[in-house]
Amino acid sequence: LKKTTIDKIKKKKKKKQKKKKKKKKKKKKKKTKKKKKKKKKKTIQLHSITNKKTPHRA
After folding, report:
1. Ranges of the chain with pLDDT below 70
2. What is residue 3's predicted lDDT score, i.e. its pLDDT?
3. For the chain, what are the domain ranges?
4. Is the dihedral of CA 6, 10, 11, 12 positive or negative?
5. What is the pLDDT of residue 9?
6. Angstrom distances, CA of residue 39 to CA of 34, 49, 57
7. What is the value of pTM for the model shown?
8. For the chain, what is the largest distance between any 2 Cα atoms, rounded to a whole number of angstroms?
9. What angle do CA 12, 14, 17 make, to 5 degrees?
10. What is the distance between the alpha carbons of residues 7 and 30, in angstroms, rounded to a whole number?
């Protein structure tokens, strides 16, 4: 009985480690998508500022 319980605990630990690794990969993908959206917003803002400045100069 003692050997089986130790084996079960070891198997559970291995499963937990595998699950954690998968979760980390998913989180990284979400972060990259958010960064891309922020970059697009920044570019649109820059264009609007440049367009406003050009008529004043002309």
Report:
1. 1-2, 15-58
2. 72
3. 1-57
4. positive
5. 78
6. 9, 16, 28
7. 0.21
8. 88
9. 110
10. 36
Residue holding tokens 């079960």? 8
At 25 the pLDDT is 67
- For residues 41-52, one letter each, b for 16 or more C-beta atoms within 10 angstroms of the residue's C-beta and e for the rest, the string is eeeeeeeeeeee
d(CA 12, CA 5): 11
Dist. CA 51–CA 44, nearest whole Å:
11
Distance CA 17, CA 38 (A): 32
Torsion of CA 15, 21, 22, 24, to 10 degrees: 140
